[in-house]
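Below is one such record:
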Amino acid sequence: MRARALDRLATVVLTLFAVLIIGLLLGLVGFILSKGWHKLNWDFISSPPQIVKAGGGVGPQLFNSLYLLVLTMLIALPLGLGAGIYMSEYAPDNRFTRFIRLSMEVLSSLPSIVVGLFGLVVFVQMTGLGYSLLSGALALTVFNLPLLVRVTEDAIRSVPQDQKEASLALGVTKWRTIVSVILPAAVPGIVTGAILASGRVFGEAAALLFTAGMSSPDLVFTNFDVSSATSPLNPFRPAETLAVHIWKVNSEGMIPDARAVADGSAAILVLTVLVFNICARWFSRWIFRRTTSGEA
């Protein structure tokens, strides 16, 4: 009887904790959306911001955030996936691999402002990239790489050993086993890590202040010449993201409706992250269903 009572008590307490966390999340999202809901219209989403006049929008900043996300994941995902595969399937348990894991732990705990200063010295100044999207993407790669490596390693290690042994017993090579058996089964965990890293890209401001810059040129969305300063696809141009724009408007904005613009920008940022997470989850489940149905 005592064990049952303790089990019920633990269930109630853990359920209350879960409800509290969900309530805090819903309350925070609801508060942000209620403050910026009046700004959610196509004109605000697509138009460029104003400097001194009221009005304007966040079109270039929203595009810069999405483009920066694509650039960052194109760099970070292959590196994180390759390092995670090596650490889980090839790396021996010795001092070198333990040093790698310690280095990743230290790197993941660095404040974003420190990563931004590192990016300023290495990517902006030493490489000559200047304040640009590429500098910001490289800095965010340093920021997100430990998370992607650790999540990939844990996702691969969580795959049942029987699947790997069955593939190897059929004469399949180790690399083919990793590609055809282990990675498809680890896709949900890897996608979860990619979602977490993407959320950090969307919401990061401190590291981008010193790498991507706090301004954006007047973009011409019909100009696809990547060497042009006004081309939205040029990775070497400065790019103010949505999170940086929110900080800039709140701290040094000169427009009369700075508060309303900041609230609307925050609402768009939250909605963008929510939509991206939902789509990524759906994509992960779709791949997993296709993989499992193919195996069946």
Observations:
- The mean pLDDT is 86.
